[in-house]
Amino acid sequence: PVLIAGIDKSRLKSIAKREAEAFAAARPKTKAALDADAGNYLDSVPMHWMKDWPMPFPMLVAKAEEARLTDIDGHEVDDFCLGDTGSMFGHSPAPVAQAIRKQARNGLTYMLPTEAALEAGRLLTKRFGDFKWQIATTATDANRFAIRVARAVTGKPKVLVFNGCYHGTVDDAMVELSDGQTITRPGLTGQVTDLTTLAACAEFNDLASVEAALKTGEIAAILTEPVMTNSCMVLPDPGFHDGLRKLATTYGALLIIDETHTISSGLGGYTGVHGLNPDIFVVGKCVAGGMPTAVWGLRPKLARDYIRYNAGRASGHSGMGTTLSANPMQFACLTANLAEVMTAKNYARMENGAERLYSGLKRVIEAHSAPWHVVRVGARVEFICAHGPLKNGTEAGKAHMPEVEATLHTSLLNRGCLIAPFHNMMLVSPVTKKRQIDRLIAAFDDILTELFA
Ligand code: PMP
């Protein structure tokens, strides 16, 4: 038989078909509602990523509470996707929901700060370290603005990213390696400029490839996640981050650390937990408890250099900032989330639950002798349908098994467990219950029993 990820392909196909049919059969109301009205949207979804779920059609969510979603057909599912990190602390954390209620009657946006903005600034510095902060609405924007500052201050043209990375819909980071050469990603829509004039690509965990790029003298900044989370998860080798920091300093490039996903690591993100020392710190998604908000901060010296760069230049149209950013609702949520949700106690809960999930999935994989592995970064757990550990983006790209992953996702969902699309990622929030974790492990076991029969 033909095997993919250790599974007989024809068996996989028949299970996939049965599970897709079971999903659809259980959701007549959803199907009818989508058939009636989804056509108003481009390709029938309000945001095209919603097409990337592996089910025959998306769920229509009626209710979200803690780490649970209910769809309009009445199916309750345990949510381990949590909005792909936006809701990592659970849906509508109570302090954030309360802050929203309070701000709701006091204006939603005025392009002026509030006292809560000052409080948020204090909390950001306390939580993430000595940076001069700016507020954006998405992590994409925060990264884009960080890159702009890096180019301004260094006068160099390129950003160095890692093969297989994702930092949002930031054009400058949309390159990859092909036969060792940086190329523009072929999937990019309507791309008309040659991105290799703006970016270079190196391999994660390969300091020699980083140094080779830096030696050109063209690199304004290295932009990286502490752990590669956007293909199959790749952990940094010991010494890799130290090496990056040293190389950046040696060659006069800035180090931008994008914590948008690795904020799962613990208090202060991976940077806080592992003592990284970025020049620019970026985090988005869950930082305000799910209210669209991102923050980026510059080290004080860099902030001074940037202010100096601006002195005497024509002002206006800096290419940074958006009209609704730094609005009072964001600050109400940011303050509530930083002070009352992103706490040591909650992170300890997440860590415990994620360790339970990690070891449970590992046990199941071993019991079935599946050629797979599991990786964890704090509250973030991922099973990978290939041997590990993975070393870099090239290996991570090859470790994707789309057919297997799609079948697993739908099968898990039919057993009441939602995991993130695009990868096999699961988040454990502070309100995720032990029994939800155990149900996911049992469902995973159930499916593997069939797949590897
Ligand atoms: N940085 C990282 C590491 C991400 O994974 C993402 C999105 N998955 C972003 C930035 C961009 O976030 P957003 O889509 O909210 O702009």
UniProtKB/TrEMBL annotation:
Keywords: Aminotransferase, Pyridoxal phosphate, Transferase. It comes from the Bacteria. The keyword Cell inner membrane does not apply. Pfam families: Aminotran_3. Its cofactor is pyridoxal 5'-phosphate. GO terms for molecular function: transaminase activity. Coiled coil: none annotated. SUPFAM superfamilies: PLP-dependent transferases. The keyword Disulfide bond does not apply. InterPro entries: Aminotrans_3 (IPR005814), PyrdxlP-dep_Trfase (IPR015424), PyrdxlP-dep_Trfase_major (IPR015421), PyrdxlP-dep_Trfase_small (IPR015422). Belongs to the class-III pyridoxal-phosphate-dependent aminotransferase family. This is Aspartate aminotransferase family protein. It comes from Albidovulum litorale.
